[in-house]
Structures are given as C-alpha cells and as structure tokens.
Amino acid sequence: SSNCFAAFACDASPVLKAAFSGRFQEGETQTYILEDLDVEIFDRFVLWIYTKTVKTESIGGVEKVKPSKETQAKFDEEVLKLLKLWVLGDKLLMPQLQNHVVAAIFKMWKLGQCHLESTSWISYIWDRTIVGSPVRRFVRAHVIRWVRKAHCLQHSEDFPRELLMAVLFSGQEIKTILDKKADTRLLWNLLQTESDWEVPEN
Prior knowledge:
The structure is a single chain. This protein has helices at residues 2-12, 14-21, 25-29, 39-51, 69-91, 95-112, 122-127, 134-146, 149-154, 161-179, 184-191. It is an all-alpha fold.
C-alpha cells in the first residue's frame, strides 16, 4: 500500500521523512514529486526501499578480454542507469544506496574490463552534484583512464571546466608516480579506487 511504502521510504531517507511528516504540501497530500526521473530508475529506487538491493542487469563480458560492441553498449547503458540512481540517492540523502550503487559499478567495471565509451552523460552528473562529490571523483577517474585526446577534442562540450582542472591536477600526480618508476598498480589505484567514491554513512 502507499502508506506502507511511505513508512519504508521515510525510514530510508531523512528528506522524505521531513517532507511527509511536516506541515508543507507534501505532508498534507502525502505526495512527493521526483522530477526528471525515468520510470525504470524509480522502479529500482522502490526495490531498494523495500529490499536494500540494487538491481543490475547481467551484461556478460570476460575479464581481460575486450568486450564486443554490443556488450560495451549494454555496459554503457547500465552504468548510466546506476549513476542516475546514485544522483537520486544524493538528492534524498541516502548514502547507503549510493555506496551500494558504487559497489555495483565497481564490480561490473572489474568483471568485464568495460568502460563508458560515451561522455555525453558527464553533464548530467555535473549539473546535479556539488564540488567534492564522490561521483565527481568517479567521473575524473573515468576521464583519465579511458577518454582519449581525440574524443576530448571532438566532444569538448561534454567536459566542464572544473573537471578539466581536476584532470590536470591528477595528471601531475600521475607524472610523479611515473617519474619514480613506481609499480603500475599504484597508478591504477590512483585512478580507480572504490573507497574514494563512497559516501560517509555516519
């Protein structure tokens, strides 16, 4: 029932709890409008509310084997859906949901050695998050690790100025590691660390 869902939702999100229990319109109507939200993302959100489970689609892919174009396209689509779910969790102050999303993305990333080929999604994330956001660090890691110069020049409108500055400073860190001829695993850990993308739950 709607009352049952509201109870679970309020327990999961302090934003929803304040909205439904307050004297504002949401409290009086027991309705909270989530704008700019795909139906499928909302369905995944509802699943999380009830089960604390982040739904992911099985993509396939084999570790250390270059994915097919079809597999890569499916991976791109799935990660974008998960990132949208992360943004919703950010809006509703649900760090546990956000961290489960990060864990799901990281697992997919490691399993199939896939990466996001598109960069058109970056503005969606950037426009809906703040400076220092863990998901912005994910974007930085993605750009450094996967985006090539030619793609960056061809799709320059996809890259906010603040992101390019973050990439520049990270590049200086990378150069320091390479100059010291350190283990390449240090470089990989700098670019792709799950804990660096987590949201404090306390």
